[in-house]
Here is the input.
Amino acid sequence: MKAVLPALARPLLEPRLPASVEPSWFTNAGDAAEMIADAEIAWIDLQDAREGPDILVTGRLLKWASTLRAGVDDFDLARLKDQGVILTNGGGINAEAVAEYAVLGVLAAAKRFDEVVRMADRHEWTNTAPGQMELYDTQALIIGYGTIGRMIGKRLAGFDVAVTGVTRSGRDGTLTPDAWRDQLGNFDWVILAAPATGDTAAMFGEAEFAAMKSTAWIVNVGRGDMIDQDALIAALKARRIGGAFLDTVTPEPLPPEHPLWGAPNTIHSMHLSGRSQTRMFLRAVELFLRNLDAFLAGRPMENVVDLDAGY
Here is the structure.
């Protein structure tokens, strides 16, 4: 069985591949595009998030595609489904790092540590803290209470934040997607951690920002297109909300002239949350090997994407 695999992972994968797998190791998109022609297994993650998915759909013999990315909105899921391809993602391998970054966002916003750093850069000493919110006794709404969302909730609970999650099913006391908007005014922190689907596009717009507390912050570690950015900029300029901590925006990278850079009370972290760790690639390798073993044995695999639901 032929497999297209990243050369970067070769030292970690090659000694552990079964004899039945014949690997081809790619170093760039051109190599991967040639190798995919007769491959049944492919792990193609490239620096440009769009290149790998575009290459995958050309693999006419492909049976299983693996990606270390958690979000699969760049993949042509309908076409993969038509071709009978199983897609597995990297959900969970960066969960701890993303959860930590979300909490970093809440803490930085509460204490306005972005302003503290700028003051220090200017060699200015202040006796007045720019941010005086305490996490204690505040309330957080986490939209997308899956693996990452629950980790965020657990960490915030350690600061005595009352956490409410949102799930599609409303399990374990969480709110359903049709219920959270009516309660937006109760929360000091609104954290987006849901996967990107057609249902989540521009889920936060003018009406949602108007319903939030004037002191509340939105923290986005999900996907940039979950927020109507024009509505966000307007809300920030009008001081209708406290501010925004944005790990994800659209487009990425954000052009230098984009008005979101200069929006008041905005902290950008350039989609670094999942990259703020040293073990992501090692975890991806272990996940791939577990799934390879299951795939060859015909057992259920981990992190199988529902190609209809989009996650």
